[in-house]
Amino acid sequence: MSAGSGAVVFDCDGLLLDTERCWTRAETELFQSFGRVFGREDKRALIGTSREAGGRVLERLLGQPGRARELGDALYELVFAEVGRGASPLPGAVELLRELRGRRPLGVASNSPRALLAAALEGAGLTDAFDVTLGGDEVREPKPAPDIYLLACELLGAEPSASIGLEDSPIGAAAARAAGLFVIGIPTLPELTIDADLVAGSLAESSVRKQLGLS
Hints:
This protein is an alpha/beta fold. The protein has helices at 20-33, 40-46, 51-61, 68-83, 93-100, 114-123, 147-156, 170-178, 206-211, and strands at 8-10, 106-109, 132-134, 164-167, 182-185, 198-199.
């Protein structure tokens, strides 16, 4: 599949914006509050999770049964503070959005809650770059369920089968694939295995631009 009339739907954290640094600092602080060291395996387990799913992962990683909601809320408070200090667009993001604008319907589908997503996009100056933005708390089931991608395509007036989803995590890629989109994977961590139709190192790579009909 290549360029056409379908939509282009982006994840946000770790794909458009360098918010994973914000998440890592927040996760590290949370782990330290429990006397734990936040490591690479912990990061892999948390990347791409929703607030609720992340809470359940934290419950297991921190050995705190029955505290999933509390832990998820605590992490998001820390992340809000970090995002408030600013998160920069990742390489190729701004240029890609500028070139796609007016050519294809553009959306963001993030597992982050609406408030956090809005804050991140506003801080990066990308609020007006999209036709539709959706947070994980705006659908019945967050990623890896296909709900958020299906709703994004519906709101953008596009068929999922004609659309492209861009993701940095296995959880996000699974959601886009389940919704029937062509999937471009840009792994946040090099060792992550993403089930995607195209895998690239960054949004600036020529293979991504070609798939989006820009070169």
